Amino acid sequence: MRRAWTTDRIRAAEERVLARTPDGALMRRAAWGLARQALAMLRARTGGTAGRRVLLLVGAGNNGGDALWAGAFLRRRSVAVSALLLDPERAHAEGLAALRAAGGRVVADVVPADLAIDGIVGLSARGSLRPDAAAVLERVTAPVLAVDLPSGVDPDTGAVDGPAVTAAATVTFGGYKPVHFLAAGRCGDTTLVDLGLELSDPDVEVLDRAEVGALWPLPGPADDKYTQGVVGVTAGSSTYPGAAVLATGSAVRATSGMVRYAGSAAEEVNRRYPEVVVTGSVTDAGRVQAWVAGPGMGTNTAARDVLAHVLEAGVPTAVDADGITLLAKHPELWDARDPAAPVLLTPHDREFARIAEPHGIELGSDRVAAAKALAARLDVTVLLKGSTTVVAGPDGRVLVNPARSHWLATAGSGDVLSGLVGALLAAGTDPVLAGGAAAHVHVLAARLAARGAPVSASLVVDSVRDAVRTVVGG
Question: Which domain holds residue 104?
Answer without folding.
Answer: 2-204
